């Protein structure tokens, strides 16, 4: 073999290999998640880091208060220095989205976002006519929220503005479209003006696990609501959600008045192992559902209210409060089976039936 040709072939092979590796290296490096630190010279605000980030990047928020709205359209991870040290705070003037509603943090465009170790906080300063605070964290348009070890608090206006669909701490999905999903765990949701966690719409779902959800005593609130949505509410502590004056629509009549609940749920939702304390209704359920091992303490009207469907309660415990179980039939017959349910120290009826329009309510017990 010609030595010159052999050396030339080897050199060409080395060159081609180098070119190939070189062309791959930047692509491989670009695919690795980056960490963007806020605040820094490059990223003075949370939104500036979100805008600059690539899908899959991590944003680290140093201790401090970030007074801004944040909108996220891509897959990201946001991590603070702790819920007591890092806060995204509602700005004085909130800007509404395309649908006319505002939020402190918004997720859309099918983004999957992890948020942990920070607080999202109000209050706002609007009115029902002019820009009341809408939502703490809003998830819509196919987005998914993974929230853990966080806090969503003071989702209200100063002074209070109890507007329709206003000031929900966390809102997953929407009507008639705009489904979202979430895993919310080990977090605190407190001092909201509307509801703590709302999962809205047939295509929306959420797992709500080991959270503390606390209403307030100056305005009517609800704790965790699933409205036509599916999911799980397990091992949460939900308290202080009730009708407050002035609220002329509230009252104990299930046919003509409104009741507020610690957990409101429908078919397709698992409710288990929760502690529900000092709510107007501990649990208000519709459709077909089994509850189990929940503890109800000092709920004002009833610990559990089951309406228009088939229900089974297994090893739930009721202690104190106005009543035990309400079975309500308004548009279909209602059947409730109480399996090893303990009811003690209540001041009203252990079991009460409400029937309307010729439909019947039936309750059976098993010890």
UniProtKB/TrEMBL annotation:
Keyword Transcription appears in the UniProt entry: no
Protein name: Right-handed parallel beta-helix repeat-containing protein
Protein keywords: Signal
Alphabetized SUPFAM superfamilies for the sequence: Pectin lyase-like
InterPro entries the record matches: Beta_helix, Pectin_lyas_fold, Pectin_lyase_fold/virulence
Organism of this sequence: Streptomyces katrae
Stretches assigned to the Right handed beta helix domain: 178-339
One Pfam family here: Beta_helix
Record's signal peptide: 1-29
């Amino acid at each position: 073999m010609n030595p010159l040709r052999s050396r030339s072939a080897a050199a060409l092979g080395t060159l081609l290999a180098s070119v190939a590796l070189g062309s791959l290296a930047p692509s491989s490096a670009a695919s690795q998640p980056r960490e963007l630190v806020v605040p820094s010279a490059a990223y003075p605000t949370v939104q500036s880091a979100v805008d600059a980030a690539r899908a899959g990047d991590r944003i680290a928020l140093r201790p401090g208060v970030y007074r801004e709205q944040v909108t996220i359209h891509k897959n990201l991870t946001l991590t603070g220095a702790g819920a007591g040290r890092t806060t995204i705070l509602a700005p004085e003037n909130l800007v509404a989205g395309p649908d006319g509603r505002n939020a402190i943090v918004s997720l859309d465009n099918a983004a999957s976002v992890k948020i942990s170790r920070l607080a999202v906080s109000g209050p706002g300063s609007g009115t029902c006519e002019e820009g009341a605070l809408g939502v703490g964290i809003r998830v819509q348009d196919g987005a998914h929220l993974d929230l853990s070890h966080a806090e969503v608090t003071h989702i209200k206006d100063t002074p209070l503005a109890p507007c329709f669909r206003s000031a929900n701490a966390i809102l997953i999905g929407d009507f008639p479209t705009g489904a979202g999903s979430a895993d919310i765990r080990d977090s605190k949701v407190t001092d909201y003006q509307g509801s703590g966690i709302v999962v809205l719409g047939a295509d929306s779902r959420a797992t709500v696990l080991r959270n503390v959800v606390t209403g307030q005593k100056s305005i009517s609130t609800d704790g965790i609501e699933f409205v036509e949505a599916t999911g799980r509410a397990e091992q949460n502590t939900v308290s202080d959600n009730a009708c407050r004056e002035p609220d002329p629509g509230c009252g104990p009549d299930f046919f003509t008045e409104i009741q507020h609940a610690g957990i409101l749920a429908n078919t397709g939702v698992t409710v288990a192992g929760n502690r529900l304390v000092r709510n107007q209704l501990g649990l208000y359920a519709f459709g077909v559902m089994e509850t189990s091992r929940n503890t109800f303490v000092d709920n004002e009207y009833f610990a559990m209210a089951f309406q228009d469907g088939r229900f089974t309660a297994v090893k739930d415990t009721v202690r104190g409060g106005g009543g035990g179980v309400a079975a309500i039939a308004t548009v279909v017959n209602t059947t409730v089976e109480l399996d090893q349910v303990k009811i003690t120290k209540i001041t009203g009826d252990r079991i009460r039936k409400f029937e309307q329009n010729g439909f019947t309510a039936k309750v059976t017990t098993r010890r």
